[in-house]
Amino acid sequence: MALVDCVHALSNDDICILPTETVYGLACSAFSAEAISKVYRLKGRPSTNPLIVHVLNHSFAEEISFTNEYSRKLAKAFWPGPLTFILPKKKSIPDEITAGLNSVAVRSPSHPLFRKILEQVQLPLAAPSANPSNKLSPTKFENAIAAFGKNCPPFLDGGQCDIGIESTVLNLTSTSPSISRLGPISKDAIEKVLGIQVGCEKTILKQTGEIKAKQSPGQGQRHYSPNTPLFLYSTMEQMLQSNAINESDILIMPRAKPSLLSPAKKIHLLYLSSTGEPKEITKNLFKVLNDADKLKQKRIHASLFPSDDGLLSAVNDRLSRAATERF
Ligand code: TXA
Ligand code: MG
Q: Which atom of ligand 1 is nearest to the CA of 181?
């Protein structure tokens, strides 16, 4: 689809798939109840799970939400980029976006194509990840086509998303900011900018990958799941010694290091990176899980990373939610 057609669709109560720097989004005007309902229907998303609204900058955020000193400081440091704020909403934002909550999620994406669209439509755009509810987020437009099939709306091709996992979500509705979804911007980085300690509302991930009780409507424990059952191990060593690995299973390895495995079993090996670098692993996480699904085998095996309070904690969070079984 050409950019001009996207702008036309979004200005006329329609939806399309747009690239962001994190994952592809299923976009619609935040002011169109009709388009919003198309997004919920196509995703099969429960109406209780609110949408993120995308804006060009902090001034636009002020038009739809009550911003504050924290959001101003953080936007200066991290926008445009993968940090979403939950802020008290203004009346202009319809209840359909926020699932009836009096807060709204806002972020300013850095992807040049998404920004061009925002400039031209002059509307805030809601865009949840472009996947059926609870399934893998798409980091290439082909993933969205595979997931939605003949119902897939028109899309803009922006190549593989640079970051590869969804934005960090930070709740700024009270005087104590807290993270409600781990993501590319770390707790540490946020604390450095604000000069205060920041909580982790619900997604505090222990070294073991255990997830504490949830509060954010979209942070259900089972999420980001491949269609193939995913077996998750605490360490790579544990995975490699597992008796649960059968012929034709898929093993997801952090980096290309074939010598670690005995070639005795006929298994599929997929690599998250060539270097073991957290950025590369994060970028490829959903791509590799999507590729694993395409192989249509019985099981995927993967292991958690030693936590680093940064990108790899967010990767562990996604893996933990994607897992069918934990070892
Ligand atoms: O990187 C991203 O954030 C991507 C790209 C497309 O921008 N979008 C994305 O949207 O991941 P979605 O809808 O898949 O995730 C939005 C998360 C959900 O967990 C939702 O529950 C939460 O944000 N959320 C949205 N509005 C909220 C609100 N008012 N209060 C609390 N959580 C909210
Ligand atoms: Mg999502």
A: 19
